[in-house]
User: Fold Protein SCAI from Mytilus coruscus.
Amino acid sequence: MSATDLVPTMDENEKKIVNEFCHLLEKSKQLFNGLRDLPQYGHKQWQSYFGRTFDVYTKLWKFQQQHRWQIGEVASKIGQLYYHYYLRTSETNYLNEAFSFYSAIRNRGYYSKANKEERSDLMVKKLRFYARFIVVCLLLKRMKLVKDLVKELQAQIEDYTLTYEPEDQMEWTLVVGEINAFLESDNLIDIHDVDPNYFLLSHRLTPLNTPPLDKSTPVYLALQEIIIVGNTADQVKFSELTLDMFRVLQTLEREPQEDFTGTQIYDASPAPGRPPFENGDKNSKRDNPHKYLLYKPTYSQMNTFLASGFKELPPNGAMLLYLSADGSLGNAKHTDDAAYDLGVNPTVYIQEIYTRKPLFLIVDSDNSSAFQNFPNLFGQPVVCFLSPEQVPHAMQDQNQKGKLFTLFLHSPLMAFCLVCNYMSISIATWDKCQAQVNKFMAEASKLFVKSRSIDHAYIQFLGDDFLRLIMLRFVFCYIVLILHRGFKGPSYYPMSHPPLPTEEILEHPVLCKIVLELATLLDCRHVMSEPGEVDIHATT
Assistant:
């Protein structure tokens, strides 16, 4: 029975309450459906719309707390709003808000009677709820809960199939297959001797892993806009999020705060906490840069998002463009419906990427050298980090589970374990090795500041925590690969443009010594060359 069915049996005051609720419910549906029509790019075009939508759903939530009408439906929509707001703003605290509402739905069984309905509509909503909840938990790295949710989703799909014999059964089975493949591929290293209920291996930025910087170092630029592009044909993905995109997304975010509102997940009703536009929040400083996630975009889409991102940059802002893409063979025709890949003619791509404002470019591709001579036409700081174009034969199948260069930028220690074939590690050893990696980052940071020959573009980006982290991890990747006996020659090493100083940074004996000490901790010193044995002919 719906709220409107009760109207004839109520007094005037009750009718007024029900009519107001029905009005808010209809208004909320209109606003929520309108989210699909909002442009994916540009901040100002959707901020006020989200604010109005949150206001309506906050009022609805108060109604449901008093009268328990359509509580599951409202909670689900609020969870979706917070998740969409996270995607728009990259503020990770809103993931916690979404988690709060989704947890309430699951723990209280709001969809428990979905399979009793004559029509399948409610059951489909239940399956979509599970899929969204899994994505939120993946982003929060709540992996044990993800595994539980996947089992529950599988059971719900079987129930859905038996009850309704739907035409979309295979589509839902494919969803479960994608999730399982994603989880298996992301689980590269077995870290044992830990309690899975309490152990959380996060790769977001925290005060503990933020690389130090000399206080006297001037801060010129702040990373404000990020475009993450995934276009690798065979790489594992889930919900238009490839493994490379998933890893870079976390690398360029701060760990969510624990003091967010509305987090009473298990014992009390969650509440829509901290409306995003309260007290002028739309103009306040963000903890995280704003990000666009583009899965196999067309050329026109790329240009549109680039133009919008550069337009939104404040005077001291910088953009980061990350490309994970296959290199095309031959001169591909560039049409609007063509997926964005990296061809052999770099001039086409150079023309489509704007350098009128500060740009930090990361390319992970087997044709990354197409950007090797990236021009700086307008005098703005431009830095390019380009992946190796080759990996040892034994690691060639690894690309499906994420590219190696991206893994080094995401989790240097995990990438080190992978190239040394060290696939199982105790938590005690992991912590010792992580301390060694942190030591490397601290020393490398000092070398950037001390260098007399480093290009000024690096110094302009160094003051930003995220960009400094990327720069230091690039150096770690470079030194590991030049020392590793399995990586032989320039095409196996990453490149930087402008070139980083070789003697002052890239081959500095202190950094090489720290990497060799790390190899000793993992008992894989034999796979590393002595620094004097390395004959480097790479252009960096």
Summary: Residues 119 and 332 are 48 Å apart (CA to CA). The first strand starts at residue 190 and ends at 192.
